Amino acid sequence: MAVAVVRVRLAATDRTAVYHGLTYIDSGKGGLMRRLGELEAEIMDCLWRWNRPATVREVVDDINERRPVAYTTVMTVATILFNKGWLLRGKQGRAWLYTPVRSREAYSAALMEDALGASEDRPVALAHFVERMSEEEVAALRRALRTNGRQTRA
Amino acid sequence: MNAAPALIGYAAAIGCVAPQAMLRSSWPHRAPALAASVWHALAVSFAISAALAAYQLVSPTEHLHAGLVVILHSCGVVLSMGTGDPNTADLMAIALPVAVLLALILSFAFHVARGRRARSRHRSVLDMVGRHCGQLHATVIEHASPAAYCLPGRRARIVVSEGAVQLLSAAQLDAVLEHERAHIVGRHHLVFAAAEAFASVFGRVPLARHVKEQTAILLEMIADDRALRRHSHDVLASAMYEMAAAHAPKGAFAAGGHSVSVRIQRLLGPRREAHPALWGCVAAAAVAVPLLPLLMAFCSPGHA
User: Fold this and answer.
1) Any transmembrane segments, and where (chain B) (predicted)?
2) Are strands B157-161 and B138-141 parallel, antiparallel or unpaired?
3) N or C: which end of chain A has fewer CB within 10 A?
4) Cβ distance B47 to B198 under 8 Å?
């Protein structure tokens, strides 16, 4: 059994918090020191797919179908996600039940808003591929594309 | 007699007349990289001439110096020797240009840092929500409206929405992704941050506003040109059209859409290759323009 010290950087907050001394035990078969960020995404993905509250055990079982992962690792990362404000949790018997704070669609919409929003002060994305055009401009361009003998699917 | 009036006149010409000349000419859209260099050269030239003019105004003229000492004195600054102290004048003469330079550097650092902070915040959510697609080398987010953008810098990301993947053909999608890749590879965010820095320091000068606007659209054209290395004009133009048309709001005028039209018209228009001699002249001008104020300052009779 290998014992590893895991350092987790909280990228979601502006300050960088480093957790020292979180230990987890794995079977030493490799592939387990994957980036914790990936595991975070994986846990969120499970909960979003199921669309219901779930325990760490259920998540571990789901991930274990693809690759081995230790219960304590998932528990630790789920706690991190709770502290970062991605998950809500409530006790059911002795186990915690985790629920995403917001749906995946809500986060996706917020990302799009952030990147492509109409605000003048938009430092996030360098540039989105195209901005919005008025209907007249779209019509003019459609004509231009047609007169150039080009195929559009419009 | 010093070079201050000449420098001020030169700065006024660069700040007000040169942008109009640039906007009226047609070559910038044919050579966007060269045009972006010229805009930045104009900005650098303006900053240098402003700094040198400040230096020349303060340093050698005795009555002006005396006036400054009085102003400083009235502001509560205690001067050790009063008027006639050459150190104060020297100090002021150095401090003003340094202040201009420092303001530009700090502003650039501020814009770079702000962008980086916003992108890292965005990326932390993106890595959780989006799905990395190895085939596209991009992150796909579940959203119906078609969009594509990039997060440049370290740990760069290219992001494309599910809506865009559905809407575009494989070739069109690749052209769009290639465009975004060009922004990342070319480190366009730093070029734009420089333009932003100049615009926020010299906000009231027409050149400042135009440099920022034109840099933004020229960078898009540079990225378009890179996408054209692997895809035809038709593919890129139709991809742009599809994306823009899907976004067009019903009956409302949308600001900023104009640059897409300009970019598509540019792709559809005749592709005229200009004479290499013209390119050479413009490139030489881009190099020479920042040096001109230095020549004016240091070769003036007053200085010698």
Assistant:
1) 37-57, 94-113, 276-298
2) parallel
3) N
4) yes
Integer CA distances (angstroms), A62 to A55, B26, B103, B261, in order: 11, 60, 55, 49
**Backbone dihedral region for residue A21 (phi beyond 0: left; psi -120 to 50: alpha; all else: beta):** left
Chain A partners within 8 Å of B188 (Cβ): 126-127
In chain A, what are the domains? 2-100 (1.10.10.10), 104-147 (no CATH)
Length of chain B: 304
Classified as helix, coil or strand, B278 is helix
Q: What is the pLDDT of residue B252?
A: 42
**Residue B303 domain-assigned?**
no
Condensed to tens digits (0 to 9), the pLDDT of residues B51-98 reads 999 888 877 554 455 555 555 555 555 544 445 556 777 788 888 889
Beta bridge partners of residue B133, listed in sequence order? B138
Signed CA dihedral, B229, B233, B234, B236: sign only: positive
Domain boundaries, position B151? 4-298
Give the total number of structural domains in chain B. 1
Q: Which of A104, A123, A130 sits opposite B244 (nearest CB)?
A: A130
Say yes or no for a CB contact (<8 Å) between B149 and A37.
no
C-alpha distances out from residue B133 to A109, B127, B137, Å: 19, 12, 6
Q: B207: which residues sit within 8 A by CB, 6+ positions away?
A: B14, B15, B16, B18, B19, B42, B43, B46
Domain membership flag for residue B304: no
> Could you report the predicted ipTM of this complex, rounded to two decimals?
0.76
> Is B278 a member of any domain?
yes
Q: Phi first, then psi: what are they for B71, rounded to 5°? A: -60, -45
CA distance B193 to B204: 18
Integer Cα distance of B8 and A104 in angstroms: 57
CB contact under 8 A, A129 and B189: no
Within a domain: residue B259?
yes
**Cβ-defined contact of B253 to A134 (cutoff 8 Å):** yes
- Structure-token pair, residue B27: 């070559």
What's the distance, CA B162 to chain centroid? Answer: 32
